[in-house]
Amino acid sequence: MSLSAGSVPILSIVVPAYNEAENLPVLYERIRALNWAEIGLDFELVVVDDHSTDGTAAVIEGLRARDSRVKTLRFSRNFGSHAACTAGLEAARGAAAVVLAADLQDPPEIIPALAAEWRKGRGIVWAVRGEREGETWQTRATARVFYVLIQYLTRMKMPPNGADFFLLDRAVLEALRLTPERNTSLVAQIQWLGFEQSSLTYTKQARAAGHSKWTLAKRIKLSIDWIVSFSYSPIRIMSAIGLLFAVLGFIYAIFLVVRRFVFVVPVEGWTSLISVLLITSGVQLVMLGVLGEYLWRSFDASRQRPRYIIERRLGL
Ligand code: UDP
Ligand code: MG
């Protein structure tokens, strides 16, 4: 494995890209314009084309023609940004790797600060969003709710605004290969690895061009993935609720028997019966759903399909 060109270590910059033709040339220029001599590293830019349909592939080839430090993988179909990050990190040859988005929301100008933390011996350096520019309050509110929920259920320490811009040391990259999970959260997976972690804060910029590919449905999927991959609490909560209902039912039954035979009040009421029936069957269905979430992920993992399929690789 070649970790350096000559004596200068290489920093891999992994960029997942789905329909980012307009943003990639700007991103490349901004990365190239960094003072690499001062950082004491050279870079390779690994763009993972998540089966874009807008000419992103041609743009990357154009960049490659100018600069052989630009490398690319193209997926055979759209596998999502987490698969793209994973593929890029697995292909990266650098002594460390940075992941950042193609849409310039994560300013590459933070890279020197990340590299400085890495030099201090940190295996993982998170760039944590301070403010979020150009996002509606609805987006911020839902993100907030998901993070609180995830933090409570998985007991993982997460920055409240999340982190999707980070640097990983070579040792962490190798460790990450050992956890080939699917339907999970890459950020949580990295956190779980341990190592010396530190973070610095930056301002997430508004998207330069195009639009976000995150939908509410995708966010919900990620949140459930995250909870199911790193927490058994939902199953425990199911057991607790089941127990509670059983105890309540038992107490109510004793109450009815005593009332019937001691106070001789006749048992009455469809209404109470139906409401109990509706509540218990509703709770049971929810519980089955929770079990299903765990079950299908287990089934999906057992099939051992690859997490992504590479259609073409250039420079890697
Ligand atoms: N992305 C990807 N595949 C997808 C969706 C997004 O590779 O299916 C990339 C996208 O090109 C961008 C990064 O993942 O570089 C973050 O995506 P986006 O900006 O849509 O997410 P947001 O910033 O809204 O969280
Ligand atoms: Mg974005």
CATH architecture: Alpha-Beta Complex
Instruction: Give a list of the ligands.
Output: uridine-5'-diphosphate, magnesium ion
Helix content: 40-55%
Strand content: 15-25%
Structural class: alpha/beta
Number of strands: 9
Note the gap between the termini. Answer: 12 Å
Return the string of H and E elements: EEHHEHEHEHEHEHHEHHHE
Q: Indicate the CATH topology.
A: Spore Coat Polysaccharide Biosynthesis Protein SpsA, Chain A
Mean pLDDT: 86
Count up the helices: 11
The name of the CATH superfamily reads Spore Coat Polysaccharide Biosynthesis Protein SpsA, Chain A
Let me know the largest β-sheet.
Answer: 9 strands, mixed
Spans where pLDDT lies below 50 across 5 or more residues: none
Quickly name the level 1 CATH class: Alpha Beta
Domain count: the total is 1
Net shape: elongated
The whole-angstrom Rg is 25 Å
Walkthrough of the structure:
It is a single chain. With 316 residues, this protein is an alpha/beta fold. The chain has one domain: Spore Coat Polysaccharide Biosynthesis Protein SpsA, Chain A (Alpha-Beta Complex), CATH 3.90.550. 50% of the residues lie in helices and 18% in strands. The protein is built from 11 helices and 9 strands. The protein has helices at 23-32, 36-39, 56-66, 81-91, 111-119, 137-154, 170-177, 186-193, 216-230, 233-261, 270-303, and strands at residues 4-5, 8-17, 42-49, 70-75, 96-99, 124-132, 165-169, 197-204, 310-314. Strands 1, 2, 3, 4, 5, 6, 7, 8 and 9 form a 9-stranded mixed β-sheet that branches. Strand 1 and strand 2 form a beta hairpin. Helix 10 packs antiparallel against helix 11. The mean pLDDT is 86. Bound molecules: uridine-5'-diphosphate (UDP) and magnesium ion (MG).
